[in-house]
Design goal:
The chain is mainly α. It is flat.
């Protein structure tokens, strides 16, 4: 056999000894051949490659075209001794037959692509987010390209690499796959981080997720393995009845990534086979990459078979959207290897010099177009057919080129793989078929369940044979196909006509083997197999069992926050129910329709959610059965700005719960109710309030308080006069039941907010703040993500601003926003955006850097656009305009395009509140821009509005009074104008002194500055000097850099007026430095101009004085 193929192997040179002689006449050396035979090195035990090299060097024929060619072979020998300096028979063989020396994991011919992906990762390590897409045919080396980068990252310890394959057989659950990858990240961090690093990260996680750690733990259960010291709240505490949707998941993971991903250790996510991914999972990737809050050093790599996707595939939408968002996106295509690269791969597989196997590699290239995986499988098929074999005599691979060239194969690797599999034993084929039904991998538990059945009792033995044949490999607790094409070949062993039945029988077998066990996420794979048989294979007596299985799967998917997957299962469950399901399966229908409504709503299908909830309300046998549906129905109405219907429905439900909500409010009755509650709470000490026990609640009473909480949220825009009545009613109900729940906490804070808004007396405000602070202590006991955004909005937006530093209020409003964005439904997200409005407001009034605040405003506006929240957008836009004008009069930062400035509601209360916000912002803008008349105009309008909040009223009084002093100063005011100023001053100073008693931090500097301005106008220089100094120091202590600058500026004007130019310049310089830190270029330029005027005036006066003195001396 060896002789028949020998004509295609390199010829052995004649065994002659060569002698070198020197020709003196020609000055050259030449060789002669003697007839004495020599022994080849191969026969002396030297490796065949080395022997071949020496033979070719002394061969009379031109085996080498040049010394460079010989040098290349020597280099190959030295650089890869394992391949070329050891003969194959010296190495372990498989089953007694010689195997190709295929180098698993080695990447051939992709040097350019390796550089591109490495450079992209380095850019991410410098603080960027980036995406890298790899297209190419199956088997072109896409996965190996990514693994080459992963290997370098693992060696360097410079990041966390997550790898997830989007499986064709589980493509209905891509969101679960991505969440599973991030869940694995927690374990990676634990294994690759030092103790001090984990402690630091735990602190940041605790700070970031202080009130909604349960939300993070729900998405990533392994977070508890990473940080065992962070106790996971119970479902009851965590408010798990709240829904999560794609937006919640995106926002939560963004926050998580900002903490765990860094320049030193960026996170890389590799999703393989994106052609099976859907728009939902790709939308999650887009959100993580386009995080505009701050880049999280996140690197996404996605591979896909570009010959199997059409232009309308969501992959291309993702690429386009990322580029529109400014995320650097790189795309590469992996084609077949070049002839030289393929020759090198075959050379190393055969352990033969490249020049000796080039003719073979050219044939392989012609048949496989250079596809690496296809080429290797073709070589294996040649070995199996005997057209490529190892010669023990020559100790090398030999082949028959003519027969290989004439070999007729299909133009894809699937044909080769399937042909090989059909020659395997029947049980081995059956094992391959079974595993292929579960996708690229089958878990150990599947093997265990199947092995417990009589039909598959020897399943493990069958699997061992598949491993021996190189089709499957055991990785940890999973049996994985070595390549997705191998899985496709195995799946093709099942005829198309038999596939449905095969899946169904497999699923039913697993269901039988796992009955009465808590399956968790395992249920998906079992039910997926069974669902192949819907509806044709489902017997009538099995329909209810399978309907319940799908219901459980849908419920489990909702627990994992995958609503798309849940909807698929719940639809199957509904399909299998009998026609009279509401009468025959009432309890199941209640739960099924409710879960489907939640899933439908979370997927954005609001109309369908309405219909499902209305069906529950129609078919429910009693009010208690309908309460969940009513609550979700009203929540959706409120989120969609259907406030009238939401308001009416909420009243109707409370009526059914034996509560009477008044249609019109008698303010005298409300006043009496407020006094009654105030007296009851006044009799309780701070300790008694904060230590109130948690009440024992029946279901109906619990819903009574929940619907009152919902009614308050609706009434805030619809009928604010109802707020105090609802708060009082909820507190009375809580006191009657001798305890509190999370809705009671909200009632206490709402009562405190109403009291702060309606009262001007310091004792009343102090009592409101006492009750509010006690409620915040109670909140820690519940700490439910559902209630936190509402409580934070009320307390830190309306109550705490009177007692706690504004910066503290801003920080907590930011937490309320983040919890609301992560926690759940659109209803809670709406409250989150209410927190947005107040945090931008308090940050502005608290003197945060304007550029940073502008960026944060744009971030909130972008989220409002993405979440379709038009209700809060006009308010944030109003504050954004003020911020932009304070920076540079809005010249370089006008309102961005795409944001709707029009009010989205015709509701009178909404329009009134929006108008109040506009007047408030116009007052601020006019004051800081120096427009005295405009400032006076808008301040009067704002102060006339009955919905103007107490804190806003205080701020307007402060700025309007300062503006009045400025107006009189600029116009050299007469007596009547000064009387008006004094009148306004008395009102403002009285209110601000009262406020300063409760919060010196927030208001003392304002009192000092108003006093200083009055003293300055009255000509009391010494008193003015002391008050200006006190205003500057107080502002500095409170970190109000803008008002510190204002105090210095006004002090400068005072000293300018009194002729003390140098002192005036010193204060102006301090003001300029403050305004630089504040980020107001407009004020910096204004102060600079003022300083020039003072200097010019000072120099002019000095010159005049010098001339006068000189003239006097001459005279």
């Amino acid at each position: 056999n060896d002789e028949s193929m020998n004509r295609n192997s390199p010829t052995e040179p004649e065994r002659k000894r060569s002698t070198v002689r020197y020709d003196k006449r020609k000055g050259k050396s030449y060789s002669t051949c003697q007839s004495k035979p020599y022994a080849p090195l191969q026969e002396l035990g030297f490796p065949s490659s080395l022997s071949m090299l020496v033979q070719n060097l002394i061969d009379a024929h031109d085996a080498y075209s040049s010394l460079d060619a010989a040098k290349n072979d020597i280099h190959i020998l030295v650089s890869d001794p394992e391949c070329f300096l050891f003969d194959l028979e010296d190495l372990p063989s498989k089953g007694g037959s010689m195997q190709l020396m295929i180098k698993k994991g080695k990447l051939y011919g992709r040097g350019k692509e390796v550089s591109l992906i490495t450079d992209a990762f380095c850019r991410v390590s410098s603080g960027k987010n980036e995406a890298f897409f790899i297209g190419g045919y199956s088997g072109s080396g896409k996965t190996m390209l990514v693994h080459s980068l992963r290997a370098r990252i693992d060696i360097a310890g410079g990041g966390y690499v997550l790898t997830q394959k989007v499986d064709q057989m589980s493509k209905e659950r891509p969101m679960l796959d991505i969440l599973s990858a991030f869940n694995t990240l927690c374990l990676l961090i634990k294994n690759k981080s030092a103790t001090h690093e984990l402690l630091g990260m735990a602190t940041m996680i605790t700070t970031e997720f202080e009130s909604d750690f349960s939300v993070l733990a729900r998405l990533l259960p392994n977070i508890n393995v990473l940080f065992p010291q962070l106790v996971r709240p119970t479902i009851k505490d965590a408010g798990m009845e709240q829904m999560m949707n794609l937006h919640n998941i995106c926002y939560t993971l963004q926050r998580f990534l900002r903490i765990v991903s860094s320049r030193l250790k960026p996170v890389m996510l590799f999703l393989d086979d994106l052609q099976w991914a859907g728009s939902t999972s790709l939308g999650l990737i887009q959100s993580l990459l386009s995080d505009t809050r701050e880049p999280s050093c996140f690197f996404f790599v996605g591979s896909y078979r570009d010959n199997e996707v059409k232009q309308e595939h969501p992959i291309f939408d993702l690429m386009t959207n990322l580029e529109l968002c400014g995320v650097k996106t790189e795309k590469v295509h992996l084609g077949g290897l070049t002839k030289d690269d393929l020759n090198l791969m075959i050379s190393e597989s055969l352990c033969i010099f490249p020049r000796l196997c080039k003719s073979l590699s050219d044939i392989v290239f012609a048949k496989t177009d250079g596809n690496p995986y296809f080429s290797l499988e073709f070589l294996r098929s040649l070995v199996s057919s005997g057209l490529l074999k190892y010669s023990l005599r020559e100790r090398r691979w030999i082949w028959d080129e003519s027969k290989i060239r004439s070999e007729n194969i299909e133009e894809n690797v699937l044909y080769l793989l399937t042909a090989n599999m059909t020659s395997l034993p029947e049980n081995t084929q059956k094992a391959l078929k079974v595993c292929s039904c579960f996708g690229i991998k089958a878990d150990e538990w599947i093997v265990g369940y199947l092995s417990s059945t009589s039909e598959y009792s020897d399943f493990r033995l069958w699997l061992d044979r598949t491993i021996d044949e190189g089709c499957i490999q055991k990785v940890d607790s999973q049996f994985k196909f070595v390549h997705d094409k191998v899985r496709e070949a195995a799946y093709s062993l099942i005829s198309d006509n038999d596939k449905t039945q095969f899946h169904y029988d497999l699923g039913m077998l697993l269901h039988s083997a796992s009955k009465d066990q808590d399956l968790g996420a395992r249920i998906f794979q079992i039910v997926d197999q069974i669902n192949h048989g819907i509806p044709d294979l489902i017997r009538p007596d099995m329909q209810m069992d399978i309907a319940v299985l799908n219901f459980k799967s849908g419920s489990t998917a909702i627990e994992f926050s995958d609503y798309d997957t849940a909807l698929s299962y719940l639809n199957n469950a509904l399909l299998l129910l009998p026609i009279n399901h509401w009468s025959s399966n009432y309890e199941l229908c209640l739960r099924l329709f409710y879960l489907k409504a939640k899933a439908t709503y979370s997927c954005g299908d609001i109309e369908n959610a309405y219909e499902l909830l209305k069906k529950i309300i129609e078919k429910g046998r009693c009010t208690e059965d309908k309460l969940d549906a009513y609550y979700l129905y009203v929540t959706i109405l409120h989120a969609c700005d259907e406030s009238n219907e939401a308001y009416i429905t909420c009243q109707e439900v409370l009526s059914q719960l034996n509560e009477t909500v008044p249609g019109s409010i008698d303010m005298r009755e409300v006043g009496a109710a407020m006094r009654e509650v105030g007296a009851a709470l006044g009799r309780m000490s701070d300790r008694e309030l904060s230590k109130m026990k948690e009440m024992e609640m029946d279901g109906v009473f619990r819903y009574t308080l929940k619907f009152y909480t919902l009614l308050i949220c609706i009434a805030f825009w619809k009928n604010p006069t109802l707020l105090p009545w609802c708060a009082c009613r909820m507190i009375n109900l809580s006191l009657k039941h001798d305890g509190v729940c999370q809705d009671s906490v909200f009632a206490f804070v709402q009562y405190a907010a109403v009291l702060c808004q309606q009262c001007n007396l310091a004792p009343d405000i102090e009592e409101a703040c006492r009750v509010g602070k006690a409620a915040m202590s109670l909140l820690k006991r519940f700490d439910s993500p559902e209630i936190v955004p509402k409580v934070y909005f009320c307390y830190f937006g309306f109550v705490a601003v009177h007692t706690e530093p504004l910066q503290v209020c801003t920080d907590n409003l930011r937490k309320g926003f983040e919890v609301g964005m992560s926690a759940g439904s659109t209803g809670i997200q709406g409250v989150a955006f209410y927190n947005s409005i107040h945090l931008i407001r308090t940050a502005l009034l608290g003197g945060e850097n304007l550029s940073s605040l502008l960026k944060e405003s744009d971030y909130h506006l972008e989220l409002m656009t993405r979440f379709h929240n038009k209700l809060s957008m006009p308010y944030v836009l109003a504050y954004r305009e003020t911020i932009a004008k304070l920076i540079d009069k809005g010249q370089s930062s006008s309102n961005p395009a795409g944001f709707d400035e029009n009010t989205p509601s015709s509701n009178a209360v909404y329009l009134q509140r929006h108008k109040e916000t506009i007047y408030f912002n116009n007052t601020l803008q006019s004051f800081w821009l120096g427009y005295s008349h405009r400032c006076h105009h808008y301040a009067e309008k704002a102060l006339d509005m009955h919905l103007l909040g107490r804190h806003n009223r205080l701020m307007i009084l402060f700025y309007a009074t300062l503006n009045s002093f400025r107006g009189v100063r600029n116009n050299n005011g007469n007596g009547s104008q000064f009387v008006k100023v004094r009148t306004m001053y008395k009102v403002a100073i009285s209110a601000l002194r009262s406020a300063a008693e409760l919060s010196p931090w927030n208001f003392s500097n304002k009192v000092f500055l108003l006093q200083a301005e009055l003293y300055s106008f009255e000509g009391k220089s010494q008193e003015a000097k002391s008050s200006y100094a006190a205003a500057v120091n107080s502002s500095c202590s409170a970190k109000f850099v803008h008002e510190q600058g204002l105090a210095c500026e006004l002090a400068g004007f005072h000293y300018k007026k009194t002729g003390q130019a140098q002192i005036a310049l010193d204060f102006f310089q301090q003001a300029k430095e403050c305004y630089i830190r504040w980020g107001s270029q407009m004020k910096v330029e204004s102060i600079t101009q003022q300083m020039e005027k003072v200097r010019s005036s000072y120099l002019s006066n000095t010159a005049k004085s010098s001339c006068f003195n000189l003239l006097s001396e001459n005279l």
